[in-house]
Amino acid sequence: MKIAIIGAGYVGLVSGACFAELGHQVICVDNDKDKINALKKLKIPIYEPGLEELVKRNHQHGRLSFTSDIASAVKASLVIFIAVGTPPKENGEADLTGIESVARSIARAMDSYRLIVEKSTVPVETGKWVKHTIEINKKKKVSFDVASNPEFLREGQAIKDFMQPDRIVVGVESKKAEELVRELYGALGAPLLVTDIKSAELIKHACNSFLAMKISFINAVASVCELAGADVERVAEGMGMDKRIGRSFLNAGIGFGGFCLPKDLDAFVSISEKLGYNFSLLKEVKKINESKKLEFIKKIEDNLWNIKEKTIAVLGLAFKPDTDDMRFAPSIDIIEKLQSDGAKIRAFDPQATHKAKGLFSGVKFCKDAYEAAKGSDCMIIVTEWSEFKELDFKKLKRLLKQPLIIDGRNIYDPNKLKGLGFKYVSIGR
Ligand code: NAD
Question: Best mutation site among 6, 11, 265 for ligand 1, i.e. most ligand atoms within 8 A of its Cβ?
Fold first, then answer.
């Protein structure tokens, strides 16, 4: 099938490469000309395990191409996915101007039937507006369908998530649209849930908000554990063994960040309010998430006495491991607060340094954890990259001014670090 994907970011590029791998003919479109020029030279603008190889292979086989000309891509394709960003506005609502502008461009270029699919995460009722925008902007009397097909991939394992999804959700208004989507994904053999468009849009916001709620729940439990002298890791284990609850998203720490959970939570609260429902539960989820960063700073203060003039080695900058994505990463707020308190920062991240460089000033970016630790008053863990679990602690002890590790992700065994002579502070235990 001939497909155009508008927006060649984390979602668009991964989806494009994966659809091509399934045998479809894919054109990825982006209005960022530098990105498209880089992609034409097979330079991948993001770090996502396995993506480079997938893009190269499908490009070589002639199934994957790139352009910044949306009209030509629309003319050449039957199905058009919208995968542009839907960033948060100041008031928490999703900014849908990118979606509207793409819908307008699609409408102007359509010369026969097209299926337009929302893949970006959008508030309920966006489908109605996309349909209206296409209707009033189309130049020819052509029919079209709009569908919602929210994407559930996780950065860091995006290809696996796309190729082996738990389920595919699709919201449609016609049998024709449903059949086209079934054909597109048929090769995956994954369960496909067909709903109306509004329900599909809502499923995505409900999922992300629920996952955010799970994280804030365990983080609140972690605070109680600290007060009671219990161990949140054991509590999470015990909770997770209950099949109704499950162990995933019960990792206590400094809270969630990234381009999805924080903004989707805000957008869900906003759209609910617009529709007349005060989703106070989710407001509390956000409040708990924000408080975890402040509690983490307090732990640093409690263990360093004064922060001013102290040097802090920060391990991990990306919002989570296996990605270079810095959007809404907890490291941003944490480093800015430490700097405003007068700390000097030596930071290391295995993949995100190039993106982080544009976000911070006065941070010394290091080539590895040891360089960051050298001469620092303590080391803090902000992102749980697996390579941080395997560090040479004897070497670290020699390099740090004092053997102090404050771990915002609970990646170490407290007894082991204590045995090695470290003062080790973690979350909820
Ligand atoms: P991104 O910023 O990485 O990619 C968006 C791309 O769209 C950018 O390359 C940008 O240049 C391009 N773009 C913006 N406006 C455009 C326009 N008018 N015409 C053409 N291109 C345009 O964002 P992302 O992380 O891929 O997220 C895209 C959407 O998918 C968002 O709604 C997000 O919430 C959702 N989503 C993201 C993830 C994730 O893990 N990143 C997972 C599921 C869903």
Answer: 11
DSSP conformation letters of 320-352: STT----TT-HHHHHHHHHHHTT-EEEEE-TTT
Q: By the 8 A CB rule, do 388 and 316 touch?
A: yes
pLDDT attached to residue 52 = 97
The pLDDT of residue 155 is: 93
Give the model confidence (pLDDT) of 69-118 as tens digits. Answer: 999 999 999 999 999 999 999 999 999 999 999 999 999 999 999 999 99
Domains in the chain, ordered, with CATH?
2-195 (3.40.50.720), 286-425 (3.40.50.720)
Ligand 1 midpoint to CA 227 (Å): 41
Ligand 1 pocket residue status of 120, Cβ below 6 Å: yes
Q: What is the dihedral sign for C-alpha 273, 10, 200, 212?
A: negative
Q: Which is the closest atom of ligand 1 to the Cα of 7?
A: 7
User: Could you count the other beta carbons within 10 Å of the beta carbon of residue 390?
Assistant: 8
Tell me whether residue 228 is exposed, middle or buried, using C-beta atoms within 10 angstroms of its C-beta: 0 to 12, 13 to 18, 19 or more.
exposed
Residue nearest to atom 4 of ligand 1 (CA): 9
Query: What is residue 199's predicted lDDT score, i.e. its pLDDT?
Result: 98
Give the per-residue pLDDT at 224: 98
Low-confidence ranges of the chain (pLDDT < 50): none
* pLDDT score of 55: 98
What is the rounded distance in angstroms from the CA atom of residue 12 to the CA atom of residue 26? 11
Q: Please, which residues have CB within 8 angstroms of residue 167's CB and are 6 or more apart in sequence?
A: 190, 191, 192, 193
CA trace torsion 198, 203, 208, 213 (10° rounding): 110
Residue 191 Cα distances to 168, 175, 371, angstroms? 6, 18, 48
Nearest CA residue ID for atom 12, ligand 1: 7
- Residue 10 beta carbon below 6 angstroms from any ligand 1 atom: yes
Find the angle CA(192)-CA(197)-CA(202) to the nearest 5 degrees. 85
Per-residue pLDDT tens digits for 398-409? 999 999 999 999
